[in-house]
Specification:
The protein has 21 helices and 27 strands. By secondary structure, it is an alpha+beta fold. Strands 1, 2, 6, 7, 8, 9, 12, 13, 25, 26 and 27 form an eleven-stranded mixed β-sheet that branches. The radius of gyration is 25 Å and the shape is globular. The two termini are 35 Å apart. The relative contact order is 0.15.
């Protein structure tokens, strides 16, 4: 979906509750005192390796390299300024894979940290549930994934729970190990730390959890509960805190020690990371447009090389000179978490020009109607491929990237001295009309619509997700009285009371959800099974969905056909035209995305993988292929690989073991150790990826097992679980060895022959055993 559900804005009002109006909810995490006294070390000198002077990391939401409709150019094809820049100066990897679930928060955090969700703490996003021991029948409370890095869980159930919060773990709960274990009392290591330790200040705009996200909790967490900012926030009766969103949310600068941009600001605060590996003391940060605009804007009516920077009041502008402002109160400042390319790119350029050499930014998609959009033909808020509004928005994005790249070039920020890492965190399935393999298509025209010369038109039955009321669908089954909560972002089921996996109620519910069908389809299949796959408790661990906080682990998770999205009200199945791009599920149309890398040390290979017309969705919108079946062309990379690759290119390292590996195929000159581990790296991905061969086959086996049996005979399930437990234990042991071997190779250490052959042999055996389990369950 185009918005980031989980942020407390008026566009997702159902998530905002009284629980967020209580500043005392931050008690679980140490807070930063405002205006700290920090000894002033010498001014920093940014020390990056390999000739790199700048880093620019951009994450798109749901912007597609592949075509959704074979006749309509893809999103990136309609942004040639960006696509051609990446192809001409580096490599676009079109065979990149998301973790599960594939959604904005989980995927972004995996890109930023190199960790899967079981280790960074947010695998079920953008919202998830937390078991509430004090609730009715041990029910669950909803929570948002979008919090500041060190904030506690933000419980969004009204009224305020008691105790509040019900779960005292940090939102970003960290585990060193897989399976995730140990007390849930540490915060995931922060992405900016290696840079600031190297003297490089880091700027963030709309980036998940590296900025303040929700004022009522994040403002007192960072500024302190007694700070003027926290007092002001608590006093605002607006439950959305829109004014504070504009002033304090969405923008951050994490300063190197001694950086003038923090030292010269009266409202720099301690950048507290109390559980950071190796410690993190004496650092400061700036948070929010209220303090960042003066620091990087330079005053009223400023411009840089002819490009606007600020308006007459000193507020930052977009690339065209429009003042950045919160959209509901029109307060100047942060424009909200659906920023356009013109907005995000302008601030990233402002930061770079202000001497901030490392910048991260987020850009929203173009699949929803933007403010002021005219000429739209899609019936609801979601825009089908080739809709005139979508084409116009993509053209605006293309113009913005052209302006931005020219501005950077004028600043001397080029692929010769800058690492550009730009990609999309997910590739949502278009739930609607598609020419191939559907019983519906965009309203026929001659010639067929392509969105460029002939706009595509959609009716209410051609553009919109199929909303499935899970409780209505189960109302005539043996599970009609079962008590459970549903988290639709990952289609996860939380059975009340948190029963064990083989509890009879759980097992019957798994059988009944597996059997749900619909006659309202895009595929044309009568009595279509809504559920494609299911993952029980043990398989959730295989998929990296189990954190070290047991209160947030669902009973089991459902991956439906990607045209469907679950609800608990309304007709059993109906069209929902508000949304038409589904996420989170296991499908090659969602889990295969793209990533572009350019800059010093990056090989110029154009596109590595299928071209825009070679994706799965335009030929297989019904998702009949598994992810490995649809991933046979090009270098298989993981979003977890982006972090170690970035740090390798700039000569830095994390103080923890990531789950990713350096993308050797991205390097002009990989070291001799990396050159010798190609097979090891490929096998590691296939056994450890959420969508690799091992996870795919165990998911297939588990889906069969969960759907099987009866109250009197559940032997098929029991046998599968015994084998799966052994495989999961073995996989985790081997993957731990392999990721350490890969990390040492990136640092230049050639693995021993026996060590490498043992790990290769064990990985091959695991893949064979998982395939056998899928075939024989």
């Amino acid at each position: 979906m185009g918005v980031r559900p989980g942020h407390l804005t008026k566009s997702n009002a159902g998530l905002a509750t009284g629980a967020l109006l209580v500043a005392s909810a931050v008690g679980a995490i140490a807070v930063a005192p405002a205006s700290p006294s920090v000894a002033a070390p010498a001014p920093p000198t940014c020390q990056l390796g390999n000739g790199v002077k700048h880093v620019i990391n951009i994450v798109f939401d749901n912007v597609h390299f592949f075509r959704d409709n074979e006749n309509v150019p893809s999103d990136l094809e309609q942004m040639p300024n960006l696509l051609n820049f990446l192809k001409a100066n580096g490599t676009v990897f079109s065979n990149s894979h998301t973790p599960l679930i594939a959604h904005t928060a989980d995927d972004s955090l995996t890109i930023y940290t190199g960790l899967y969700g079981d280790r960074h703490g947010q695998p079920l996003t953008n919202t998830y549930n937390v078991y509430n021991p004090s609730g009715s029948n041990f029910s669950t409370d909803p929570a948002t994934s979008f919090t500041y890095w060190t904030s506690p869980i933000i419980d969004t159930r009204p009224p305020v729970p008691a105790p509040n919060p019900v779960d005292t773990a940090p939102s970003m709960t960290y585990s060193d190990t897989v399976p995730a274990s140990g007390p849930a009392n540490r915060v995931t290591p922060a992405p900016w730390v290696p840079f600031t330790r190297a003297g490089c200040t880091v700027g963030d705009f709309s980036t998940a959890n590296m900025v303040l996200e929700n004022p009522a909790v994040d403002v007192p967490t960072v500024f302190g509960p007694d700070s003027p900012e926290a007092i002001e926030t608590a006093a605002n009766p607006d439950r959305f805190k829109d004014v504070q969103v504009a002033k304090y949310v969405g923008e951050a600068i994490h300063c190197a020690q001694g950086a003038a941009i923090c030292a010269n600001s009266p409202r720099a605060v301690a950048d507290n990371l109390p559980t950071e590996p190796g410690g993190y003391d004496g650092y400061q940060g700036l948070f929010g447009a209220q303090y960042i605009a003066p620091a990087i804007g330079g005053g009223p009516n400023q411009s840089h090389d002819g490009f606007p920077v600020t308006d007459a009041h000193g507020n930052l502008t977009d690339l065209d000179g429009n003042t950045l402002q919160e959209p509901f109160t029109h307060t100047p400042g942060f424009p909200g978490f659906s920023p356009t390319a013109s907005q995000s790119l302008a601030v990233l350029a402002d930061m770079q020009e202000a001497g901030i050499p490392v910048t991260y930014g987020y850009i929203s998609d173009t699949h929803d109607k933007k403010a002021g959009a005219t000429g739209c033909t899609s019936p609801g808020n979601a825009l089908g491929p080739g809709d005139a509004c979508a084409v116009a928005a993509l053209h605006a994005y293309d113009v913005a990237f052209g302006q931005w790249l020219q501005r950077l070039a004028d600043d001397g920020i080029t692929p010769g001295n800058t690492v550009f890492m730009i990609g999309a965190e997910e590739n949502d399935q278009f739930a609607g009309a598609n020419v191939v393999g559907r019983n519906t298509q965009p309203t026929p025209t001659t010639p067929p619509c392509d969105g460029v010369t002939v706009a595509c038109h959609y009716t209410s039955s051609q553009d919109g997700e199929l909303q499935a009321n899970i409780k209505g669908l189960l109302s005539t089954t043996a599970s009609s009285t079962a008590q459970y909560d549903v988290q639709p972002q990952g289609a996860s089921i939380y059975v009340k009371g948190q029963p064990v996996a083989d509890d009879p109620t759980v097992r019957q519910l798994e059988r009944d959800t597996a059997a749900m069908t619909s006659n309202l389809t895009y595929s044309g299949v009568p009595n279509e099974h809504i559920v494609k796959y299911q993952a029980g408790a043990l398989e959730q661990r295989v998929l990296h969905l189990q954190t070290n906080d047991p209160l947030r682990t669902p009973t089991y998770s459902i991956f439906p056909m990607p045209d469907y999205f679950f609800s608990t009200t309304g007709a059993n199945v109906s069209f929902n035209n508000a949304f038409a791009y589904d996420h989170g599920y296991y499908s090659p149309n969602i889990d295969i995305t793209w990533a572009g890398i350019a800059g010093p040390g990056v090989v110029n290979n154009g596109v590595d993988g299928p071209g825009p017309t070679g994706g799965n969705e335009s030929q297989d919108p019904n998702s009949t292929h598994t992810v490995p079946e649809a991933s046979t062309q090009g270098t298989w990379i993981e979003e977890a690989d982006m972090r170690p690759t970035l740090l390798h290119l700039v000569g830095l390292h994390d103080d923890y073991q990531t789950d990713g590996q350096v993308i050797t195929q991205a390097l002009t000159q990989p070291n001799s150790a990396l050159a010798q581990i190609a097979e090891l790296g490929q096998l590691y991905q296939q056994i450890n990826s959420s969508v690799g061969e091992f996870a795919t086959n165990t998911l297939i086996a588990d889906s069969k097992a969960l759907a099987s049996g009866s109250a009197s005979n559940d032997s098929r399930y029991a046998n599968e679980q015994t084998t799966l437990a052994d495989l999961a234990d073995h996989r985790d042991r081997v993957a731990t060895l392999m990721k350490a071997t890969l990390a040492r190779a990136a640092a230049g250490t050639v693995p021993g022959h026996g060590e490498m052959q043992s790990e290769i042999a064990q990985a091959r055996a695991l893949l064979k055993q998982a395939a056998q389990l899928a075939a024989h369950t």
